[in-house]
Amino acid sequence: MSLIFLPPPLQQINSEITRNAGVDLYVLRLDLMHPWVNGNKWFKLKYNLLEAKEKDFTTLLTFGGGYSNHIYATAAAGNLFGFRTIGVIRGEERLPLNPTLSFAVQQGMQLVYLNREMYRQRNTPALQEYLQQRFGEVFIIPEGGSNLNGVRGCTEIVSNAMLTAGYAYAFDHICVACGTATTLAGIALSLHEGQRAIAFPVLKNGAFLAQEIETFLTNYLASGSPAPSNWELMCDYHFGGYAKVNDELLLFSQQFTQQHGVPLDYVYTAKMFYGVMDLLQQGFFCKGDRLLLVHTGGLQGNVGMEERLQRFSKI
Ligand SMILES: *Cc1c(COP(=O)(O)O)cnc(C)c1O
Q1: Can you give the residue ranges of the Tryptophan synthase beta chain-like PALP domain (predicted)?
Q2: Ligand 1: does its nearest atom lie under 6 Å from the Cβ of 179?
Q3: Which is the closest atom of ligand 1 to the Cα of 268?
Q4: Which end of the chain has fewer surrounding CB within 10 Å, N or C?
Q5: Is there a contact between 150 and 44 (Cβ–Cβ < 8 Å)?
Q6: Whole-number Å distance between alpha carbons of 235 and 214
């Protein structure tokens, strides 16, 4: 299953900010593993697809908003690995389809729309039963791939970096953008002593995620094993909330891409990279620290985002 994917390259970033802070900073380019099934979404799907295959399911069903990276990745991964896919989309159908959803359809995904109220019930047995009755035997993956299979896949993200960099190379801080915190949980579970994970929630009031992370960690570990406390949340870099941007973030993102050749998505990675650069300038890290920034992909979403921004003539 992994043969289709390129090992993610590690790219060093040298800038005035990193030099002044005296740190080594590397980006783990999960965005370059595959043209479509990229980023953390592949890691969250991997063990879900393996379980579906093992249990002889031929159809995957999952949930997402109209610009969802997870919908995009599930459609492409389903197509690659021979599953039918059904995408349950939040809200009303809008035609013409946006670039994310038209890609999903091209990959063979069947789209179904649920109004917001019904969509909110997506994790309840009642709604899942309704979907099973309507579509037959389907393997249901939660929105964002956010289950323990997803956590398991994400335990492999940093070990991939270690392979690329050679085992001797140990990073002190692993930084990642955070939506549901599934990715952060997997990373925290995979770290060695002395390493820390720093998560940057892209939602407003992200502090509530601490409880979700605890739940992921304790449910993942065999009962009795203590959950690692090697992670922290940086809640001040959400820029107003999910998929909200301002000119400062857009400018930062464009300049970073120009200077370092690393494209960033506006919903997730731009906010995390901005946060890390800001913390570096504030002296948050120590001289000699080695930082790994996980580029979780999501670049497909920029197409839709840029279209929307242009409509408001922001960029
Ligand atoms: C989904 C996504 C995230 C958030 O992952 P979680 O596991 O939900 O925290 C981060 N970055 C990108 C690009 C994503 O698509």
Answers
A1: 16-297
A2: yes
A3: 11
A4: N
A5: yes
A6: 17
